[in-house]
Amino acid sequence: MTMAEKKTEKAAVKKEEKPKEKPLEKLPEKPVEKAAVEKPAEEIKEKKVEKPKKKQKGAYSRYKVEERGFVRLRPFCERCGPGYFMADHGDRYTCGHCGFTRYKKS
Ligand SMILES: [Zn+2]
Questions:
Q1: Per-10-residue mean pLDDT for the chain, 106 residues long?
Q2: Three-state SS across 69-90?
Q3: pTM score, whole prediction
Q4: What is the whole-number distance in angstroms between the Cα of residue 48 and the centre of ligand 1?
Q5: Cβ atoms 65, 72 nearer than 8 A
Q6: Which of 23, 29, 77, 94 is the most buried (most CB within 10 A)?
Q7: Residue 93 in contact with residue 101, Cβ under 8 Å?
Q8: Measured in angstroms, how far is the CA atom of residue 88 from the centroid of ligand 1?
Q9: Phi, then psi, of 62 in degrees rounded to 5
Q10: Rounded to the nearest whole angstrom, what is the distance from the C-alpha of residue 49 to the centroid of ligand 1?
């Protein structure tokens, strides 16, 4: 029985040594690819949230401060009432809220 056991032990050792000849396995590369794909997606979401804030102009851009106080550079919309400024298009004012257009008096 001793001879048979030694033969089986040697065969088992040889089989275990064979996988060592192939050290290059693709398992460690997969986690790195996943992390690289997730990071850019988070950065894009953050940029989309910040964009609308840049478009908004403060109320100070619609007023002109003078010695008396402040003067409105643009009129309020006649339909929407105070608080809705009309855009200056040179010869006319337009309301971006309701679309009302008023021509300037020349
Ligand atoms: Zn309006």
A1: 64 61 64 57 59 60 63 84 89 93 84
A2: CEEECCCEECCCEEEEEEEECC
A3: 0.34
A4: 29
A5: no
A6: 77
A7: yes
A8: 13
A9: -100, 0
A10: 28
Is 77:87 a contact under the CB 8 Å cutoff? no
Q: Work out whether strand 81-88 and strand 101-103 pair parallel, antiparallel, or are unpaired.
A: unpaired
Task: Scan for tokens 């298009």, then name that residue.
Answer: 89
End-to-end CA, the chain? 118
Query: 10: exposed, middle or buried (C-beta count within 10 Å: 0-12, 13-18, 19+)?
Result: exposed
What is the rounded CA–CA span in Å between residue 3 and residue 15? 19
Work out the widest C-alpha separation in the chain, in whole angstroms: 118
Alpha carbon of 86 to ligand 1 centroid (Å): 7
